[in-house]
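About this split. The held-out portion is used to measure sequence recovery: a designer receives only the structure tokens and must propose an amino acid at every position. Recovery is the fraction of positions where the proposal matches the reference. Here is one held-out target exactly as it appears in the evaluation file.
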């Protein structure tokens, strides 16, 4: 199990954040809804590999972990928390549905106003990897650059979810190291150093 936190943008279709009517909960500004995790959705190129999240990957974490709802992954800008009952995460057929009773705070007001105006549309989630599989991507899933490995997340521990102003290029350092181990054990002829350089270039371009 990785002890480092990786972060990912929501699926290609985005998390579809919406603001609903004000909640009856005392101190709540409004309700933020979205889907920050999409199952079985092939990611964009993450710097030399692509990734999907299995539906069962979140089963344990949703039952056991106290996940935070954060704005821009910032612990100083909390929006909700599953342990406090101010955020709920529900596994649906196609992904994880998030519902947050936004607090009447600076962060809560910023998010509510930003989503309503269309200024905040990106979502992200932070996780630690518990189980993963590395596979060769089939021909129908290859991009113009040819073969790329497919990382299938089979179990994760969620750390935080929430809206972000700038969906930064995902932190894939741990995944790159995991892919290197897989390549060695499977005797795959992968130039991991070249993939890492490609990842860095993409990150500089904020892709």
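Reference sequence for scoring:
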């Amino acid at each position: 199990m990785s002890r480092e936190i990786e972060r990912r943008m929501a699926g290609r279709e985005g998390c579809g954040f919406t603001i609903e009517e004000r909640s009856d909960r005392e101190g709540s500004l409004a309700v933020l809804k979205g889907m920050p995790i999409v199952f079985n959705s092939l990611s964009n190129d993450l710097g030399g590999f692509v990734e999907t999240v299995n539906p069962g990957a979140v089963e344990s974490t949703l039952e056991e972990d106290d996940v935070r709802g954060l704005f821009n992954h910032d612990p100083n800008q909390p929006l909700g928390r599953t342990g406090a009952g101010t955020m709920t995460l529900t596994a649906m057929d196609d992904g994880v549905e998030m519902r947050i009773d936004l607090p009447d705070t600076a962060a809560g007001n910023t998010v509510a106003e930003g989503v309503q105006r269309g200024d905040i549309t990106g979502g992200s989630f932070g996780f630690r990897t518990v189980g993963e599989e590395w596979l060769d991507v089939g021909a129908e899933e290859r991009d113009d650059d040819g073969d790329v490995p497919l990382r299938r997340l089979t179990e994760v521990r969620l750390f935080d979810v929430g809206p972000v102003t700038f969906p930064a290029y995902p932190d894939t350092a741990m995944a790159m190291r995991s892919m290197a181990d897989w390549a060695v054990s499977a005797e795959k002829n992968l130039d991991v150093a070249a993939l890492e350089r490609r990842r860095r270039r993409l990150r500089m371009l904020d892709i």
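Annotator remark: Helices lie at 59-64, 106-117, 173-185, 192-204.
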